């Protein structure tokens, strides 16, 4: 989607080390995710600036609050304290 929208700079924060670290380091041809990693690296070349970092699960849980409020909450103004 980011490529289709012609986004030039992309920053991804993800809470799964299993997916982040293989993208940042060379993996051998026998790695079970090698074809997916190659596809991602090909897409990565489409961006002027690109970063992929691992974040702890707690940081990702905070990001999950917003869509859950939209799906489960009442309409109106919400505050998160």
TrEMBL record:
<dbReference type="GO" id="GO:0003676">
    <property type="term" value="F:nucleic acid binding"/>
</dbReference>
<feature type="domain" description="RNase H type-1">
    <location>
        <begin position="2"/>
        <end position="68"/>
    </location>
</feature>
<protein>
    <recommendedName>
        <fullName>RNase H type-1 domain-containing protein</fullName>
    </recommendedName>
</protein>
<dbReference type="InterPro" id="IPR002156">
    <property type="entry name" value="RNaseH_domain"/>
</dbReference>
<dbReference type="Pfam" id="PF13456">
    <property type="entry name" value="RVT_3"/>
</dbReference>
<dbReference type="GO" id="GO:0004523">
    <property type="term" value="F:RNA-DNA hybrid ribonuclease activity"/>
</dbReference>
